[in-house]
Amino acid sequence: MSPEADSSDSPRQPLLSADEFVRLCDEQLPFARLIGMQVERFTWESVALRAIFNTDFLRPGGTVSGPVMMTLADAAMFGAVLARKGPLALAVTTNLSIDFLRKPAPTDVVATAQLLKLGKRLAVGDILIHSAQDDALVARATATYSLPNS
To answer: pLDDT tens digits, residue range 56-76?
Structure first.
């Protein structure tokens, strides 16, 4: 029986470990290294990733740039998909939409992704991005990933 078909009340374990995810990101997502990405949480239910603040991330006005938050959101969604599907080659973003809600402080940002739907060909998820300084919600994204034929 597949892990998705398991109806027990016990918590499900991700099909990939956090360490395996980091290794896969090193191979497939070189931009993750550029934002100093660290895994905060890697579970079946959600994946939380942190971008370690760097002054290179700042835009005029002292805010963390949108591309950093978009990169983090995309990586978190990738992690959420792999936690449920295991190491997939060619799982790719087909859509990423982000709303910037408030100016983040010049500090780390944390993105938490949860899948809303996981099908055979597509995965849809919701990503919340918080400022690590005060836990303020600074952005919200939705993403769709195309999944390879299994």
So the answer is: 999 888 889 999 999 999 999
Tokens of 32: 């993750």
* pTM recorded for the entire structure: 0.89
Angle between helices 66-85 and 18-28 (to 10 degrees): 120
Query: Which residues have C-beta within 8 Å of that of residue 99, sequence separation ≥ 6?
Result: 139, 140, 141
| Tens digits of residue pLDDT in 7-48 | 445 579 999 999 999 999 888 888 888 899 999 999 999 999
End-to-end CA, the chain: 16
Give the integer Cα–Cα distance in Å for 130 and 140.
9
- Of the candidate CATH numbers 3.40.50.970, 3.60.21.10, 3.10.129.10, 3.50.4.10, the domain formed by 13-146 belongs to 3.10.129.10
DSSP state of 150: -
